[in-house]
Amino acid sequence: MLRALWTAAAGMKAQQLFIDTIANNLANVNTTGFKKSRVEFQDLLYQTINIAGGKAPGGGQLPVGIQIGHGVQPVGIGKLFTQGEITETQNPLDLVIEGDGFFQVLQPDGSVAYTRDGAFKLDKDGRMVTANGLPLEPEIIIPPEATNISISHDGTVSILLPGDTTPQEVGQITLAKFINPAGLQSMGYNLYKPTDASGEAITGTPGLEGFGIVSQGFLEMSNVQVVEEMANMIIAQRAYEINSKAIQTTDEMLRIANNLRR
Amino acid sequence: MLEGLFSAASGMVSVIQAQQIIINNIANVATPGFKKDIPVYRSFSTILQKKLERRESISEVEGTFVDFSQGEIESTGRRLDLAIRGEGFFALLTPQGIAYTRAGSFTLDNKGRLTTPQGYFLLGTRGPLTIPSLRETSQFKVSPEGEVIVGEKVIDRIRVEVFPATPFSLYKVGENLFKLGAKTSMRGVKGNYLIKQGYLELSNVDIVQEMVDLIANFRLYEAAQKAIQLQDATLGKICSELQ
């Protein structure tokens, strides 16, 4: 009897985690480059009282066994790296990756982090940096006198200097991708860190070998769909509710058992 | 007289077992690929017959029966989410041997193998399905027949196992997995299935049905309790009359 209480409690805990994830997705509905998370559930161990096909007490074969489950457990929360909506900003330093790949940025500790957020700025040295000031890797420096910055689909950065008529190449944006992007660790600030599960970063040129192309003047929005999250929220809330009802019913049954002897 | 007490008490015990099964279904309402369990009671006629033959009159859950009906299929847009519409199971390689699942949310491990969230490998016709070139993961496609296409080339076919119509050949081991019962060795039955890429099969638990079962079960429990109390009262009366 108590087992049923724990099973239903496991159900409530799982739905709680589901709601937590939905809330984080919804909170980031306007975060550029944000990728939504999804909780994966699995059923818990089964207590097998009789196995189907075993010998029945009478000598026959049991057509069905008895297996009693113990509830549910989250097995992982994975990021869904689907393309987010693309909005036009006309800002020459706003970049979007259409397809697979991450921008590489250098962290203060010297390690490389990965991001889909392409809202770049220039720092005082003219380097292209993220909103948090992390420089793009490999470094790209735009001279202060440049009048026009153009970034092609393959990631070549060119500038026009005053008086010149032909653009001058100042750098090349390279992208990184992972065999298992869902295995990346989210560090917050729109950044990801590779793990053993994600595999090593594979770098390449935009537009080649399965990498997405880079487009200038656009930003990738979050891939969170509000309607979808709302629907999930309703499902999670109702599932939470019915699990709590299951606890109440079990509790009531315990009361009945206790009242057998008045 | 006492026999009646015992049979009502056994009724209460079996209702508790059924309750646990229903609550497990409810807890797994959001588990992808979950198939609900249905408690099977000994039928009323069997009990009646046994009673007429003056044998036991004990009620019990005779077995659990897995309802393998199709769960709803939800669009996720994720390349590595696969749903089976129709019969069959994905075959997985686990450290404890081959297991089967309907939960199709796969990821790639760092060697390019398709794995479940628990880290079990999805099997193709030639062992674990592996994407040969790490650079080509974005061109990964699965045809409705289960052929895995990378770029333009068919690299393997997903092993979908369809089992004979008897649903009793598989038992659950948790982690969304099923295993083949010891007595069944039949496999490779031709089945009707379609693999849908970018979709996930949800749990086939119908929350309304479970709620109804929960209430019905609760009332059964209450009724069995009343039956015990009634018999207790009768016994009490006999005892007091005798004094």
UniProtKB/TrEMBL annotation, chain A:
Biological processes annotated in GO: bacterial-type flagellum-dependent swarming motility
Keyword Cytoplasm among UniProt keywords: no
Q: Where is the Flagellar basal-body/hook protein C-terminal domain?
A: 216-260
Q: Cite the Flagellar basal body rod protein N-terminal domain residue spans from the record.
A: 7-35
What Pfam families does the record tag this protein with?
A: Flg_bb_rod, Flg_bbr_C, LlgE_F_G_D1
Keyword Hydrolase, does the record have it?
no
Share what the entry says about its subunit structure, partners included.
Answer: The basal body constitutes a major portion of the flagellar organelle and consists of four rings (L,P,S, and M) mounted on a central rod. The rod consists of about 26 subunits of FlgG in the distal portion, and FlgB, FlgC and FlgF are thought to build up the proximal portion of the rod with about 6 subunits each.
Tell me what this protein is called.
Flagellar basal-body rod protein FlgG
Q: Which gene encodes it?
A: flgG
UniProtKB/TrEMBL annotation, chain B:
Question: Transmembrane ranges?
Answer: none
Where is it localised? Answer: Bacterial flagellum basal body
- In this chain the Flagellar basal-body/hook protein C-terminal domain maps to 196-237
Q: Which SUPFAM superfamilies match?
A: Flagellar hook protein flgE
Domain (Flagellar hook protein FlgE/F/G-like D1) spans 83-149
Tell me which UniProt keywords the record has, alphabetically.
Bacterial flagellum, Cell projection, Cilium, Flagellum
Q: Name one GO biological process term.
A: bacterial-type flagellum-dependent swarming motility
GO CC terms for this protein?
bacterial-type flagellum basal body
Pfam families recorded: Flg_bbr_C, LlgE_F_G_D1
Recorded family membership: Belongs to the flagella basal body rod proteins family.
In Swiss-Prot or TrEMBL terms, this protein is called Flagellar basal-body rod protein FlgF
